[in-house]
Amino acid sequence: MSAHTTIQRTTIPQIKAMKGQQKIVCLTAYTAPFARMMDEFVDLILVGDSTAMVGYNMENTLAITVEQMTAHALAVTRSSEKACVIVDMPFGSYQESKEQAFRNAAYILKHSNAQGVKMEGGEFLAETVQFLTERGIPVMAHIGLMPQYFNTMGGFKAQGLSPEMADRIYHDAMVHTQAGAFGLLIEGSAEPLARRITENVPIPTIGIGASPDCDGQILVTEDILNLSGPRIPKFAKQFADAQASIRAGFKQYAEEVRAGTFPTLAHCFGVKKDD
Ligand SMILES: Nc1nc(=O)c2c([nH]1)NC[C@@H]1CN(c3ccc(C(=O)N[C@@H](CCC(=O)O)C(=O)O)cc3)CN21
Ligand SMILES: CC(C)C(=O)C(=O)O
Ligand SMILES: [Mg+2]
């Protein structure tokens, strides 16, 4: 047995096969500590472009680059061994043409060792989904609320609430499925729409602010740990208060340094026993 055949990373075909069998548990991670801690609990880690907002305190996701996403993705793959890892293609790196999309997706995967990419878009994106899938790059299509349309939409607005819009998003889901997407991420959309899509596609749907009936769920990790800023979406639920625990640690450290009780000689080098 070779030295590196201990744990096999979950593959994209395995994620696809989970539909109808078991819920697909997904979270975002951008850096080593969270990737390392969540690896045993999640099936899939998304290196989300939400790091623009959560990690860099930007107003929206538009300014993050291919190089930044690649660096975050590499940190995540180096710090996990079990979860399937996919990466958000950042704004402007895939919308221009299917060739541009392939070039940037191949760059990201080559330099990060991640397994697939996610891209936001409706019907126009289907030929890109097919082009990449045929050439060895698995694509998850992100539909519904698409944060990269921040300027077109004038903010983050729930989608598919009217029958006309719901039908258009349903159609987008069918077209992406036909094009070979390995999964659909449905964000901020009417619940009946997300359920109807889930029931009518053979590929997994991953919901965020979508429906309990989606094949899997995802949230932004910092949101569920109370580590995000003040603007947390309605669909996020707080599962732990890491902020309280981290702030307590900062407070204690500051107090001990100011009081001169940290460090002690036990934290120092070259200290003689009888000093
Ligand atoms: N911290 C964080 N969590 C996220 O889930 C997330 C990000 N950042 N950044 C990228 C996108 C943007 N997302 C968001 C951000 C805000 C709302 C929001 O405020 N929605 C309103 C309803 C908007 C409407 O329909 O008018 C809400 O009440 O939740 C939704 C999705 C989801 N993603
Ligand atoms: C919110 C999830 C789905 C995402 O796209 C991100 O984290 O960027
Ligand atoms: Mg994203």
TrEMBL record:
The keyword Transferase applies. One of its GO terms (molecular function) is magnesium ion binding. It comes from the Bacteria. SUPFAM superfamilies: Phosphoenolpyruvate/pyruvate domain (SSF51621). One of its GO terms (cellular component) is cytoplasm. It is an enzyme of class 2 (transferase). Keywords: Cytoplasm, Magnesium, Metal-binding, Methyltransferase, Pantothenate biosynthesis, Transferase. Mg(2+) binds at D49, D88, E120. 3-methyl-2-oxobutanoate binds at D49, S50, D88, K118. It is found in: Cytoplasm. Belongs to the PanB family. Homodecamer; pentamer of dimers. HAMAP family: PanB (MF_00156). This is 3-methyl-2-oxobutanoate hydroxymethyltransferase. It comes from Pelistega ratti. The gene is panB.
